[in-house]
Amino acid sequence: MNKFSLILLNKINKYKMKATKVQYTVKSEFVKQNVENINKVMSDLRQLNNADLKYSSFILDDKKSFVHFVMTNTEEAAKILNSLDSFKKFQTELKASNPEISPLVEHISLVNSSYDIFYI
Questions:
Q1: Which CATH code of 3.40.50.300, 3.30.70.100, 3.30.360.10, 3.30.10.20 fits the domain covering 16-108?
Q2: Contact status, residue 110 vs residue 51, Cβ threshold 8 Å
Q3: Which residues are within 8 A (CB) of 42 and not within 5 positions of it... i.e. 6 or more apart?
Q4: Mapped to the 3 state alphabet, what secondary structure does 20-63 carry?
Q5: Under a CB-based contact definition with an 8 Å cutoff, are residues 90 and 37 in contact?
Q6: For the segment 16-65, what is each residue's pLDDT rounded down to a tens digit?
Q7: Helix (H), strand (E) at residue 68
């Protein structure tokens, strides 16, 4: 293991970074609303400007499957997303839309990265 990997692993262990991947497929008629809901969540997160929370959302080639990645660096940051009204609305409307494929939540662990995810 190289020096960079050891430093990265020490950062992860010290700060207990948590990462989650969520993937689901919505019906075509719900795509636009889902994107709007995601954009509102992202806007709210940008306003909070919390360096200990990273959240990204992607749409797949089929234009109706979404993948979200959430990384938190502190316990406080881990609580932010679920406390946002915009995120609650996003979750409620997603569930009510009866997705073609329900959200699959997976807790993932970082092996390595070509960039710093969280700065110390």
A1: 3.30.70.100
A2: no
A3: 55, 57
A4: EEEEEECCHHHHHHHHHHHHHHHHHHHHHCCCCEEEEEEECCCC
A5: yes
A6: 789 999 999 999 999 999 999 999 999 999 999 999 999 999 999 999 99
A7: strand 65-72
